Amino acid sequence: MNSIPPHWFDSHCHFDFAALDHEREPQWALAQRSGVSGLLIPGVHRQQGEYLAAFCQNRPFYYALGLHPYFLSRHKEDDLLWLEQALQQPDVIAVGEAGLDWMLALTSGQRQQQWFWFRAQVALAQTYELPMILHIRGAHDEAASFLRQQRFRAGGMVHAFSGSEQQGNAWRKLGFRLGIGGAMSHPRAHKLRRTVAALPLDSWLLETDSPDMQPAFWNGVNNSPASIPLLAAMLASLHRVSLTELALRLEQNLLQTFPRIAARR
């Protein structure tokens, strides 16, 4: 009797970005043949957020809405009014991609701007009891401390986690899971792989961040959800579990993190 092959989910990718316009359909077909059954696209600014619902329609694509710190120059204060209205739609899975990125903040003023948008989106997530998709670089301790002070309870996902085991545990205590992808595949990523192995499997969600964050083994110019099964094999090896066991655990992690995905299954 043949066993059912495992199915995977790309929990964070920008599959709508224009860089993929000429290869999106073949890449999605390849991903499906590889066992990828769905994906989650985060919002990064209002202009993108306004078309995500239509982009995801009639496919196993899910979306979140948020205002990313990379796009500070695009964000306008009335975008928060738009976001609040949009979050009331039942198809919106989470608030995000939102967060703090001190690699992008070259001045104290830019840090203050990032804090403004982050605080505002945390408040909206609390109001509508939605999980968050977080983009955090160089600010894990500050962001986690703020959410702790706010008694944030909806949890979510810390995308592209590259922090320490201690920071990972701090996020876990706040109800967040950690996104891991191509970064762990690079030869010099010894510390990250140790952290991935040290934290329990219920900590993790697999992601590609396509079209960015190409794994070391990926030959394409753009990353793709089709790389998820290869990343899954690496994660299974680090935790010494079978692919079937890993797939079941990741599915549980996904549905616990994003209840609106569970409701639509």
Question: How would you characterize the overall build of this protein?
Answer:
The chain has 265 residues and is α/β, with parallel strands linked by helices. It has one domain (23-264): Metal-dependent hydrolases (TIM Barrel, Alpha-Beta Barrel). The protein has helices at residues 24-33, 46-56, 78-86, 108-127, 140-149, 165-173, 190-198, 228-239, 243-257, 259-264, and strands at 8-10, 36-41, 61-65, 92-101, 132-137, 156-159, 176-180, 204-206. An eight-stranded parallel beta sheet has the order 1-2-3-4-5-6-7-8. α5 (140-149) links the parallel β5 and β6. The longest helix is centred in the middle third of the chain and has 20 residues, at 108-127. The mean pLDDT is 96. Keywords: Hydrolase, Metal-binding. A divalent metal cation 2 binds at residues 135, 159. InterPro entries: DNase_TatD-rel_CS (IPR018228), Metal_Hydrolase (IPR032466), TatD-like (IPR001130).
